[in-house]
Amino acid sequence: MKYLILLIVLASFAAIIYGFSLPEENVAVSDRFIGAGTVGLFLVAMPLFLFNYSKGKKMKDYMLTEENIRKMQGKDTEKPENQ
Questions:
Q1: Is-above-0.85 flag for pTM?
Q2: Tag placement on the chain: N or C end, fewer CB within 10 Å?
Q3: Is the pLDDT of residue 80 over 70?
Q4: Tell me, what's the pLDDT at 58?
Q5: Helix axes 46-53, 2-21, angle to 10 degrees
Q6: 13, 37 contact by CB (below 8 A)
């Protein structure tokens, strides 16, 4: 999976660079290569990367909740008796 993501990223960058290097007479073709490379990066490679590297992680650990703020500040997590 790691190598598939790397291949998609490299192919997307290659398409974007190729799109910018085409002469100005082929604007439509150039725009298609740039667009395809952008779609490859942001709609294919990024979701695959996020899905692959976030397996087994708890999203609650990364959310900014009152409990996590207290943990970061080093305060105890117990609530006062009147609450």
A1: no
A2: C
A3: no
A4: 82
A5: 160
A6: yes
DSSP output for 14-73: HHHHHHHHS-TT-HHHHHHHHHHHHHIIIIIIHHHHHHHHTTT--GGGGS--HHHHHHHH
- Return the amino acid letter for 36: A
Q: Strand, coil or helix: what is 28? A: helix
Q: What angle do CA 70, 72, 77 make, to 5 degrees?
A: 25
Q: Let me know how long the chain is.
A: 83
Look up residue 52 and give its amino acid.
Answer: N
pLDDT confidence tier of residue 54, bands split at 50, 70 and 90? confident
| Residue type at 1 in one-letter notation | M
Cα 48–chain centre separation: 8
| Structure-token pair, residue 2 | 């790691």
